[in-house]
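Subject: sequence -> structure tokens, single chain

Hey, anyone have a minute? Need the predicted structure for the following. Not urgent.
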Amino acid sequence: MTDLPRSRSWYVDTLGLKVEFEVPGPVTPNGCALWFQVADVDATFAEWSSRGVEFAHAPRRSYWGYGAELEDPDGYLIRLWDERSMKER
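Reply:
Had a minute. Here:
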């Protein structure tokens, strides 16, 4: 992460996530993708969009299943999915 306080604030204040623990020391970007399981992809997309979160795309079917994609402030890919939609779509 290029700016840890900015990234932490984005995850907590913008997405509404909670910090469970923090690891001291440098964080090195490694090109990973984060997969967030949510209760309802469409509802989470609507809620986060209303907070100003910009998505790469709305929930849709893709090669990995059904969900939405966005990037965090450092360019890490985040994929949202839910169990129901993965089974139905």
